[in-house]
Design goal:
The structure holds 2 protein chains of 2 kinds.
Chain A lengths: L2 H5 L7 E4 L8 H16 L5 E4 L3 H4 L7 E4 L2 E4 L1 H10 L10 H28 L1 H12 L7 H20 L6 H19 L9 E8 L2 E6 L3 H15 L6 H7 L2 H14 L23
Parallel strand pairs in A: 1-2
Antiparallel strand pairs in A: 1-3, 3-4, 5-6
Helix pairs in contact in A: 2-9, 5-6, 5-7, 5-8, 5-9, 6-7, 8-10, 9-10
Chain B lengths: L4 H21 L21 E4 L2 E4 L1 H10 L10 H28 L1 H14 L5 H21 L7 H23 L12 H15 L6 H7 L2 H15 L11
Antiparallel strand pairs in B: 1-2
Helix pairs in contact in B: 1-2, 1-7, 3-4, 3-5, 3-6, 3-7, 4-5, 7-9
The chains are: A alpha+beta, B mainly alpha.
Family (chain A): Belongs to the metaxin family.
Keywords (chain A): Acetylation, Membrane, Mitochondrion, Mitochondrion outer membrane, Protein transport, Transport
InterPro entries (chain A): Glutathione_S-Trfase, Metaxin_GST, Mito_Protein_Transport_Metaxin, Sam37/metaxin_N
Chain lengths: 284, 244
């Protein structure tokens, strides 16, 4: 990244693009988008969420979400974290080398298990595909384009699943993998507020006195994005969300981040992370 | 169920990993070379045969060994168990594609080392067909999981996967530091997995060696492999073949 890029401050009109929230977006894309939104909130960088039916096609990597900042377009959490770091904002600077390695490993775990399980559920589980995915994915487009796009995407995802060995798995095995992943996350989190509890500059008022601030990292944003979405998305059955609900510290973690970074930040109707149709709020 | 890419990916790293795990946990394990892959129950190797039970797939084999009380992770805390899972995910995402490429896709390596070695261990006429199939599956897996915009050509994909693999090796080296094993003084599942990935890379003599050279610049990882080889396998590898 050149120095000129780093010198530009974060503009007021930065935008995050995703698919249409109520009719079109699927579980995995929703999770990815929420993770990026959480990360930017944690960095205190304002961004407005823009919903477009063709967000996937506008993205430089074909994946959502992507952000449009100044005249740069960056997609996916990894590159966005790098981009934000080049601008001088980082959540993981205070970590030592071993902690950074651990953080990267846990982020791969979430991508490897949770994201793949979400993709499996929405593209390889026949019931979910028929009742939810096919109806949502191409919904902004007229027939027969909606069906063609949906089948094309399904074929592409199924090829990938076959290549990594997930095509032969049953739904029960996939749910077991989700459980194993949640168990690992729960054990790593323990009773701490975030995954890494490095104290950073600044004080915050807690328990009637000033205490050092503890900040979350991009790992917290990623885990929140996926777990919150799983917990609050209505699917054909509750099996997936039940796996996460087994771990009370993970639910508390999601609630904490929701309260701290998303409550009271809903300025316009398109940026609320917690109001979605047919979805339940955690706080109820 | 037909043999597919999981078999391929596993074949490169699994046997050393399972043998290492067995040695760490004290399980008495005899390695028998199967000449005919078709004889394995679902065509998958390696398989574990214990009394009357037959198990395939490495994850299930590890679980079986654990249930039989051959548990190399007995002294690990819950957090360390979670760390194990995370690091294994890191290895599979960041290191495995480059490993597959080095063994099965890089033309000089494949033609001069991998194919003759592999073909010599399976019977004719499988030896004419199987190595080529595995090579194609490796390339397929790499392209399906890593190619895509903004990486458009194979060269760009290759550059990216080797960058990721080198970064992964650096992370492993930082995590290991000066310890003997990843969690203290006793080896565990994670050590077995890391050994399974690193040992073939470290010991096999390839013509094209960029990843191997990077590994050799990380002395603690080389020491880690050498320690396990000398303590648990008591072998000096001399002819560039995989330790068996």
């Amino acid at each position: 990244m050149c120095k000129a890029l780093a010198a530009e401050p974060w503009p007021e009109n930065a935008a995050l693009y995703q698919q249409l929230k109520d009719e079109q977006i699927l579980l995995s894309d929703n999770a990815s988008s929420l993770a990026v939104q959480a990360f930017l909130q944690m960095c205190n960088l304002p961004v407005r969420v823009v919903c477009r039916a063709n967000a996937e096609y506008m993205s430089p990597s074909g994946k959502v979400p992507f952000i449009h900042v100044g005249n740069q377009v960056v997609s996916e959490l990894g590159p966005i974290v790098q981009f934000v770091k080049a601008k001088g904002h980082s959540l993981s600077d205070g970590l030592d080398e071993v902690q950074k390695a651990e953080m990267k490993a846990y982020m791969e775990l979430v991508n490897n298990m949770l994201l793949t399980a979400e993709l499996y559920l929405q593209w390889c589980d026949d019931v979910t595909v028929e009742e939810i995915t096919h109806l949502r994915y191409g919904s902004p487009y007229p027939w027969p384009l909606n069906r063609i796009l949906s089948y094309q995407k399904q074929w592409e995802i199924r090829r990938k699943m076959k290549a990594i060995g997930w095509a032969g798995k049953s739904l029960e095995q996939v749910l077991e993998d989700v459980d194993q992943c949640c168990q690992a996350l729960s054990q790593r989190l323990g009773t701490q507020p975030y995954f890494f509890n490095k104290q950073c500059k600044g004080l915050t008022f807690q328990y009637r006195r000033l205490v050092p601030k503890i900040r979350p990292t991009e790992l917290d944003a990623l885990v929140f994005g996926h777990l919150f979405t799983i917990l609050t998305t209505q699917l054909t059955s509750d099996e997936l969300s039940e796996k996460v609900k087994n771990y009370s510290n993970l639910i508390a973690f999601c609630r904490r981040i929701e309260q701290q970074y998303f409550e009271g930040h809903d300025k316009d109707s398109s940026s609320s992370a917690t109001s979605r149709s047919a979805k339940r709020s955690l706080l109820r | 169920r037909p043999r597919g890419p999981p078999f391929l990916a596993e074949a490169t790293a699994t046997l050393p990993r399972l043998q290492a795990y067995a040695k760490f946990s004290g399980a008495p394990l005899t390695v028998n070379a199967i000449n005919n892959c078709w004889r394995a129950p679902k065509g998958e190797v390696p398989i574990l045969i214990s009394e009357d039970t037959v198990i395939s797939q490495p994850a299930k084999i590890l679980n079986f060994l654990r249930k039989q009380k051959y548990n190399a992770d007995y002294e690990l805390s819950a957090k360390q168990g979670a760390d194990t899972l995370a690091y294994i995910a890191l290895l599979e995402e960041k290191l495995l594609p480059a490993l597959l490429h080095t063994f099965w896709v890089e033309a000089e390596n494949y033609c001069s080392v991998t194919k003759p070695w592999f073909a010599s261990r399976i019977p004719f006429p499988l030896s004419l067909y199987l190595p080529g199939k595995m090579s194609r599956e490796a390339l397929n897996r790499i392209l399906l999981t890593r190619a895509g915009p903004p990486l458009y050509s194979l060269t760009e994909v290759e550059a990216q996967i080797y960058r990721d693999a080198k970064e992964c090796l650096n992370l492993l080296s930082k995590r290991l530091g000066t310890s003997q094993f990843f969690f203290g003084n006793r080896p565990s599942t994670l050590d077995a997995f890391v050994f399974g990935f690193l040992a073939p890379l470290y010991k096999v003599c390839f013509p094209r060696v960029q990843l191997q050279e990077h590994l050799k610049q990380l002395p603690n990882l080389c020491r880690f492999c050498d320690d396990i080889l000398s303590c648990y396998f008591r072998l000096a590898v001399s002819d560039g073949r995989q330790p068996s």
